[in-house]
Amino acid sequence: MKELKEKILAEGVAIGTEIVKVDHFLNHRLDVKFLENVGKEFKKRFADCEINKVLTVEASGIAVASLTAMYFDYVPVVFAKKAAPSTMTEGFYVAEAKSFTKGTVSLLRVSERFIEKGDKVLIIDDFLAHGQASLALANIVEQAGAEVVGVGAVIEKGFQGGSERLRAAGHRVESLAVIDKIEEGRIIFK
Amino acid sequence: MKELKEKILAEGVAIGTEIVKVDHFLNHRLDVKFLENVGKEFKKRFADCEINKVLTVEASGIAVASLTAMYFDYVPVVFAKKAAPSTMTEGFYVAEAKSFTKGTVSLLRVSERFIEKGDKVLIIDDFLAHGQASLALANIVEQAGAEVVGVGAVIEKGFQGGSERLRAAGHRVESLAVIDKIEEGRIIFK
User: Fold this and answer.
1) What is the spatial distance between Cα A61 and Cα B89, in angstroms, rounded to a whole number?
2) Which of A1, A10, B155, B165 has its CA 20 to 30 A from that of B188?
């Protein structure tokens, strides 16, 4: 997605060799008009698929997932929670996701009421790095007896192996911009 | 907002006398089409105001804030973070918010780059309870030398005093549904 790559180059900041900071439009400040275009692009990429639910993780995935769902006939969005809130009284599916950036392990939780057997689920996230979050979401979908139609990532850090891991697990992956490497403060796309 | 009240009665679950669980459309599963109508309603309520930024808190505020910003000419959305992420290297405004539901105190953080002097900020949140989150966001706006135009809440728990506290601090408050009390599993609107 050309517009996305231009935006990453214009507004993104490379930190070291592994981190790209895009908090100007994607995960702290949100450019909603631009995220609509991201949603449209996911629709184009998954146009051949039947999808009845979009699944993401709080917090950065929520805006992208919501604006993507608009282009899939407003199917429901579900976001996995990283902590068990006090109002989450019933059963939930849980899966472990390690964050290499933060050096933490999160338990992702989704209420059993919100993913149903037979659902056709599109997983959407802002970043695809090592693939841990998407694999955990896919695990939750499978626990529910539902089907992962595909995984859509806004930005993939191609050098961290996430898409290979997801494809090896049998998932279709569409990343709108794939970063090949980060070198001396420069972001180089595949 | 009639449609909202009907939705709360149809899909909300009262827990004890203080908690209303609306995770079916607002804070775990998201009904994006409905949240568009919420955004439209906020535009109607604040139609007389000049607004150039929408501010909320992760995670539940993000979808509502994004869909509200669409109706304010796609002004940028900024969401305050509850934890300092590893990619947040620069200075940030910080304010303390106590959550009575969770029994915790969060530090809300917003990068200094994203609220500017002179900004006219609409604060949006899913719930207005004791008002702690909105007061913390207003504090951040003021630290930045910007102006709080108003506070918009989807659901106000009228019996917890949040809107009184905000109005006492000089803020305009618009809540789309005000719950007067929760009694024997019944939700009663003002």
Assistant:
1) 21
2) B165
| A125-139 pLDDT tens trace | 999 999 999 999 999
Closest Cβ–Cβ partner in B15, B23, B87 for A21: B87
Bridge-partner residues for B157, per DSSP?
A: B179
3-state DSSP assignment of residue A14: strand
A85 — phi, psi (to 5°)?
-75, 160
Name the H helices within chain A.
2-11, 32-45, 61-69, 132-143, 162-168
Chain A residues whose CB is inside 8 A of the B88 CB are 23, 28
Neighbours of B168 (CB within 10 A): 10
- Residues B62 and A57: their CA atoms lie apart, in Å, by 12
Question: What b/e string do you get for A3-24 counting C-beta neighbours within 10 Å, with b at 16 or more?
Answer: ebbebbeeebbbeeeebbbbbb
Whether B78 sits inside 8 A of A32 (CB atoms) is no
Question: Would strands B92-99 and B104-111 be described as parallel, antiparallel, or unpaired?
Answer: antiparallel
Contacting residues of B for A29, CB less than 8 Å apart: 76-78, 111, 113-114
DSSP B81: B
Closest-CA distance, A30 to chain B, in angstroms, reads 5
Is the minimum CB–CB distance between A111 and chain B shorter than 8 Å?
yes
Predicted confidence (pLDDT) per residue in B91-139, tens digit: 999 999 988 777 889 899 999 999 999 999 999 999 999 999 999 999 9
> Under a CB-based contact definition with an 8 Å cutoff, are residues B158 and B180 in contact?
yes
Q: Say how far apart CA A43 and CA A35 lie, in whole Å.
A: 12
Q: Which residues contact B189 (CB under 8 A, 6 or more apart)?
A: B5, B177, B178, B179, B180
Token pair, residue B13, equals 């679950």
Instruction: Report angle CA B95, B161, B8 to the nearest 5 degrees.
Output: 100
By the 8 A CB rule, do B99 and B131 touch?
no
CB contact under 8 A, B63 and A62: yes
